[in-house]
Amino acid sequence: MISPDGVESAVDGNGASDSEPLLDVQDLKKYFPVHGGILGRSVDQVRAVDGVSFRLKRGETLGLVGESGCGKSTTGRAILRLIEPTGGRVLFDGQDLKELDRAQLGAFRRRAQIVFQDPYGSLNPRMTVGSMLAEVLKVHGLGETGVDRLARVHELLEMVGLHTEHTGRFPHEFSGGQRQRIGIARALAVEPEFIVCDEPVSALDVSVQAQVINLLRDLQRDLGLTYLFIAHDLAVVEYMSDRVAVMYLGKIVEMAAAQELYKNPRHPYTRALLSAAPRRDPRAGPVRKRIRLSGDVPSPIRPPSGCPFYARCPHPGKDEECRRLAPLLVEKAPSHLAACCKDPMPTDGA
Ligand SMILES: Nc1ncnc2c1ncn2[C@@H]1O[C@H](COP(=O)(O)OP(=O)(O)OP(=O)(O)O)[C@@H](O)[C@H]1O
Ligand SMILES: [Mg+2]
After folding, report:
1. What is the tens place of the pLDDT at every residue in 34-68?
2. Which of 149, 194, 227, 322 is the most buried (most CB within 10 A)?
């Protein structure tokens, strides 16, 4: 499912040709074993990520969208080596992550961080925010003395819009939005260059979402951060991202500059997702007629051999070829990749 040339030109179209990408993901795969029988042997595999390729240049944000279970989090975690990929390569700043020794992996973990959807679940309820952040600094050998580390803790809290008085408070003493700010401060503690934001605002009220999104954007501008931004909400992704990749059943089925993807979706799945998304900005273009997808997402255990979207595809021109042949992710327009053999479906106005 890779078209290395296509991916290359997609990135070139976004201006990455003049510099090496910070992140270069090549044909990434993660298959989880499925255990069965009384002996609990591995009987099958879940193809959670099945050949994902993209590049990210420094300071860029790639949005990653798709239905629940399509492999977004697994992609992020496999890139960060929080889980071991089954196949493919991930180059970070030109270095193959598979070849890193322990010390080098430790250094990589300072350069690449993750912010989770549920900060409460990932914060130790028995530690104050100050001691938790100081611990992160200590583990990574940052700050010579306790006084240095406390000064840095105060700095981190202020960076994310909290106050030094919050240092001695426990996670349950914060609101959801404030807890997510703490999750962001924890990621920033090690001065990373790249952050996987895995649905960082999905659990928050809409009014709070905007504040956290704006914080992430301000931090990106001030610190030159590079983001892989995972989300369900297409409006949030459009606002945050330079480019957007749409995932379906472990594969990227469409990738383009954010505005281009939202204006001219080429894959019927993207069109269906967009038609179901609430419009926050009426100036963004015509309201799309709702496309209802029939059927369920096929199982990632034995995915279909042809187009993974065939069974649910509403394209009037879908045919036997779609059922048999897996479409390649190829360039349909400059820097716009899609994995569909058919012409885009006609656009429909209101
Ligand atoms: N540790 C695991 N063991 C077995 N299967 C797993 C594991 N983690 C994820 N999966 C499976 O891999 C597939 C992709 O899961 P993943 O969490 O990456 O999806 P997602 O796109 O992030 O979904 P969501 O939007 O719900 O967060 C799913 O079918 C899931 O059940
Ligand atoms: Mg997820």
Report:
1. 887 777 777 789 999 999 999 999 999 999 999 99
2. 227
